[in-house]
Amino acid sequence: MSMHKLTGVAALLLVSGVASADGPNLGKRLSAQEIAAWDISILPDGGNLPPGSGNAEQGARAYAQKCVACHGESGKGGIAAALVGSAPITTISGAQKTIANFWPYPTTVFDFIRRAMPWQQPKSLTDDEVYALTAYIFALNKLIAEDATMNAETLPKVRMPNRDGFIVRFPEKM
Amino acid sequence: MNGTVTPNGLHFVILHSGVPDIDPDKHRLVIHGLVKQPLEFSLDTLARYPMVSRMGFVECGGNSAPMFSPQPMQASVQALHGLASNAEWTGVLLSTLLEETGIDPKAKWVVAEGADSLGVSRSVPLGKALDDAMIALYQNGERLMPGNGYPMRLLLPGWEGNMNIKYLRRLKLTDQPAMTYYESKIYSQLLPGGKSYQFYFLQEVKSFITHPSFGMAMKGNGYYEISGVAYSGNGRIARVMVSADGGKSWAQAALQEPVLPKAFTRFRAPWRWDGSPAVLQSRAWDEAGNAQPLRAEFVAKRGELPKPAPILAFPNQHYNSLTSWAVAANGEVSHVYA
Question: Which architecture characterizes domain B8-192 according to CATH?
Fold first, then answer.
């Protein structure tokens, strides 16, 4: 199409007043069911947590099969990040950050295990396994009782010690 | 490096789990959540949308992390500040797609997710999404490099690199941030006293001299051109000052036109080296009036490590203070704090 003709079309649309409202509209409409298959984002208020549940004892079994090779016995000493530890933070080095001394929300643990672990086969765990592993990690860190069950109700209520340890750098951009 | 454009093969790459092998014909972008009509886009359909091009820098939040060491690391400008690159990005504005999905008035955030193995995810304020966010498809005229997000990435001009989600596959509009692993753990910055910054968002005004710099040697007395790059996530660079005496006196550098917002600006200043020891520094201001902080100011606010950390340790993030290069009488250039 020549530039001359393009300009003519644009002018015509502008005159009829529909240019701004009438985009290409090429997106495929999705049903709620189709979206559910995509949507793995868990919100800090517990929003979008799936059905299911698990406790630390079940988590220990899954951990021994799928996590221990990288994260070590009882969540430390492995080649991957330690999952247990609450030593106080004393410098500005990020290497000190652990779940118990830094992570502000319990839902992040569930979300990250489900989307990213195990390293060689992410998104392969069942939701029950993710709840159980989350319970196992929280129990090792003494953030919940050893026999506590994690589910969509109980998980968001776990109080993380560093919940109030943050300053939003640019609140005016939010 | 000279000029302002980073060739595609040299664009920095930080990936948290390697380059995914994505079939562009099967890749989809889904926009859902607090929208009126959830929509799915393929690469082919996006190619038919109105596109825009803009120059823009992308900088890793951890760029310049070696500058948190208590002694100056003897390393090149590439090793100290190399996780910033500048390219012409072409793609579809996110606002164009959100016009078609519609936005529920309750929406305040857009949670972005990649198709890499970790599903790297970050929460972006809706205001930024509607301002200048782009679904980038091209980088300096070519399709995106595999390490830079092929077949599509989120481009948030001037904002922390990790938020510019690569291999973008999903955008969910929400009423709250998702507090993902990367925003609540990795890209939160410990401060002196134990609190931490979160949602830093911006790559603030910064400059450094690339020539002369560590690893180069002066070749006799006389004329040299001091040259470097300046940029700000807040907009255009307004001014760059250059010192050859460690900040005692300053001269204004020339800015290479065009000076574009949220993009590298090359600055240059003539200098006649008399052969005696000198300390070279640059300091930039952006059009919003922000000044690059002096090192003493920066350290007072953000702290220093108790001991030096390896170049690739990334102990902290968002360093935007000055860089000082000492020129010795024998022509060697070293890194100093001044």
Answer: Alpha-Beta Complex (3.90)
